[in-house]
Design goal:
Blueprint: E1 19-29, E2 33-45, E3 51-60, E4 63-87, E5 90-92, E6 95-118, E7 121-142, H1 149-161, H2 163-192
Antiparallel strand pairs: 1-2, 2-4, 3-4, 4-5, 4-6, 6-7
InterPro entries: Haemolymph_juvenile_hormone-bd (IPR010562), To_sf (IPR038606)
Protein name: Circadian clock-controlled protein
Pfam families: JHBP (PF06585)
Length: 202
């Protein structure tokens, strides 16, 4: 997807690298932490370096189901956060800057959609989109988790040492937040490019 790095203005496809998220709320409901994290002015770098490894699609009339496996060498995201959390019955309201670096990602996605006609072409509108990210390694930084910089560093060391366990907890908890966002992005793409340019409708 290198061609999508700067977007395709005439097709109304937004720039994908960096991909901008102006604001999003993440609800957290786990055994030890509950609350909400708001992120703002998030920039995601590396999407244009992704490579689609395999595509599997099935069509039944106007219904389409599709599976993709995509490899992303490196994703880097940064932005600002504000949290309102209860962690082990302790209320915390930190805010600050954060960044996350992820390497060797493999994204296996499953989607469902329906075909529709427009201007003599067939387009695809996705109705469901979900994926399972497998991450080779991840490093997290956040400022001002606690007022004491030394303690902040200790917390980050712990999180980065046990990031796989944290990730397994957070992924299902935040799925309802990020899946609709990716569905919107994918539909912007498919609304701009006719589906019949890729696949003939039988």
């Amino acid at each position: 997807t290198p061609r999508l790095k700067d977007g395709i203005k005439e097709l109304n496809i937004p720039p994908m690298d960096p991909f901008i998220i102006e604001r999003n709320n993440i609800e957290v409901r786990s055994g030890f932490a509950t609350g909400r994290v708001q992120v703002r002015n998030v920039r995601i770098f590396g999407i244009s370096d992704s490579v689609v490894q395999s595509v599997d699609h099935r069509m039944d009339g106007d219904k389409v189901s599709m599976g993709l496996v995509t490899q992303v060498p490196r994703l880097y995201l940064e932005g600002n956060y504000k949290a309102d959390m209860m962690i082990n019955e302790v209320k915390m309201t930190p805010k600050g800057y954060f960044n996350v670096t992820m390497t060797d990602l493999v994204l296996s996605s499953q989607s469902e959609g329906e075909l529709y006609e427009r201007d003599g072409h067939t387009y695809l509108r996705l109705t469901k989109f979900n994926f399972e990210p497998e991450i080779g390694d991840m490093h997290i930084y956040a400022s001002n988790l606690v007022p004491d910089p030394a303690l902040n560093a200790v917390i980050l060391d712990f999180v980065n040492q046990y990031w796989r366990q944290v990730y397994k907890i957070m992924l299902p908890q935040t799925r309802s937040t990020w899946e609709p966002m990716f569905l919107k992005v994918m539909n912007s793409f498919f609304a701009a490019i006719p589906f019949d340019l890729f696949i003939k409708k039988n």
